[in-house]
Amino acid sequence: MALHIYNSYTRKKEIFESITPGYVGMYVCGPTVSGESHLGHARPYISFDVVYRYLTYKKYKVRYVRNITDAGHFEEEGKEAEDKVSKKAQIEKLEPMELVQKYTNLFHWAMKQFNCVEPSIEPTATGHIVEQIVMIEDIISKGYAYEVNGSVYFDVKKYAASHDYGKLSGRVIDELLDAGNREDVSRELDGQQEKREAADFALWKAAPPEHIMRWKSPWGDGFPGWHIECSAMATKYLGSNFDIHGGGMDLLFPHHESEIAQSTICNHSAPVKYWMHNNMITINGRKMGKSYNNVIKLTEMFSGNHPLLTQAFHPMTVRFFILQSHYRSTLDFSSDALSASEKALKRLWDAYEVLKNLPVSNTTSPTDAELDSKITNWLNEFEIFMDDDFGSPRVIANMFEIAPIINSLKDGLIPFDAISASTLQKMKDSFHVFLEDVFGLTNVNDQNNELLNPIMQLLLDIRKEAKANKDFATSDKIRNQLTQLGILIKDDKEGNTTWGVA
RNA sequence: GGUCCUUUGGCCGAGUGGCUUAGGCAAAGCUCUGCAAAAGCUUCUACAGCGGUUCGAAUCCGCUAGGGACCUCCA
């Protein structure tokens, strides 16, 4: 089965065929580093990390570009929505770039916690002012943008006359053009008066004197509009046509719609073959976002320091939680749901550790052919499900089907010759590839170290001796006190004991 | 107001025409165990409501009700 991807642009699942065989260009809208990343931000970066990893698994050479939006270039500049970066900088008395650096570092830290692969290129908006200016000049020269009072706007009406503006987001162009006249749109958008049409969007904004972040341009001092950075940087690093563009669903309009318009004018063709959009993480059914005042920052997730959290959550728990739902579904956050994922991941990972240590026999003809073929089928479905628009939840479900079998093999409840050696080997290989390489999960309990292991072994030996002498007071003392320290003791059927962090 | 999406068992969450009682968590019982834990087994069989299409629908269509997203910065 070939990889199928749901294309937001056509609203259909399509067979994935890269533009250049063997290579994939992928652009994902990165964070605006004017504040701390929250749980909602984790969704796209983890989802597209898995996309990247899976494409790599499929032997594609992927160039993964994810930008850092570090220029305060917010299209709307009303009373509140002035350049967020510079505004906050004044409050915190920091240089804008100092603030940007701080949150960029924090973002990178979080990505590392999540075990996200670093993008091939991580361009910054401030590092590509020149490219953006050149692109804007190009759009002006082609007649699709106009300058007013030092600002430049994209002429949506003119573009829409010959192009399909609104197709990606399902907007109706007449309504967009008419938006300025509707009575329900009472917002006072800055620059609305100087725009020819309400639907026009800014390519370059003139900076008022107090605006700290500013660059020289042919139109005077200012800063780039919101959408142009992605067009400029995607074109620079991936070319006029590239394979995948990802981002959150909330970016469909106006951001991605505008990106298409800009790039189409400059490059004479639609920029992206497959548009992918992840859905939102909700909290009590409502999107997590600054505007709703319901965000849980990642630092709060990892520390448990938030009223809605009953405990701290490991980054891997969050990652697993996200992978347990499909990237195009909304995912409702709750502390209980996270706790459930935490336990589930532990169970799955424990089984995986057991699997890794199972000896591969030389069984060629399994005594339980039915079980053997069931397992084979579940394993084969790993790739089939992933090929179907990255169906990670179904892969995980299959892993849970296999987990009890692994444990039963270990405990001797299922004899080793029940399944063939090749099937067992395939289990080991598939679990490794999908759990670690594709899903990017890692061992949560990596506290094992050279000092601790021998000490634990010593304690377990003492406990074993005590048990042999029926000195249960001592053996229970060891077990109970270790439990209090957060270390679980597990006795198996053969009298062997293993331990793990709770 | 416009456009679009969504509604699954105690909770989270897959699944889109007929056989997945998906899976996880929780709960209960059992096995194992010195007792536990872990593990294994078993039970808990849902698809908002109404109508339609069909031999057959959670799955397609319509209506009703609830929820949500976008239309403005937003992952």
Structure description:
The protein has 502 residues and is of the alpha/beta class. The chain has 3 domains: 4-280, HUPs (Rossmann fold), CATH 3.40.50; 340-438, Four Helix Bundle (Hemerythrin (Met), subunit A); 452-501, no CATH class. Helices cover 45% and strands 14% of the residues. The chain contains 16 helices and 15 strands. It has helices at residues 39-57, 84-92, 96-113, 129-141, 156-162, 173-178, 228-238, 252-267, 298-303, 315-323, 335-357, 369-387, 392-411, 421-438, 452-468, 472-484, and strands at 4-7, 12-15, 23-28, 61-66, 145-148, 151-154, 201-206, 222-224, 242-248, 272-278, 281-283, 286-287, 331-333, 487-491, 497-501. The chain has a 4-stranded parallel β-sheet, with helices on both faces. Helix 12 runs antiparallel to helix 13. Mean pLDDT is 90; it is low at 73-82 and 182-189. The chain binds one RNA strand of 75 nucleotides through helix 1, helix 8, strand 12, helix 11 and helix 13.
